[in-house]
Amino acid sequence: MVMMLPFLSALISAWLAWRGHCRASLWWWLVTLAIFLIWCRFHMTSTLDISL
């Protein structure tokens, strides 16, 4: 479910932009960017567990 958060927030941002709510759309886009940055940091600093 957590992996869907950036897609959901980007969808909300696009929907708001299409409806003409530019300020709200920008805030949702910034939320999407923050989620991407948090997940990027998490995946770059966590150990890579590969079972071979």
TrEMBL record:
Report the superkingdom from the record: Bacteria
Q: Does the keyword Transmembrane helix apply?
A: yes
Q: Carries keyword Membrane?
A: yes
Q: Which residues cross the membrane?
A: 26-44
InterPro entries found in the cross-reference section: DUF5993
UniProt keyword terms in alphabetical order: Membrane, Transmembrane, Transmembrane helix
Protein name (database record): Uncharacterized protein
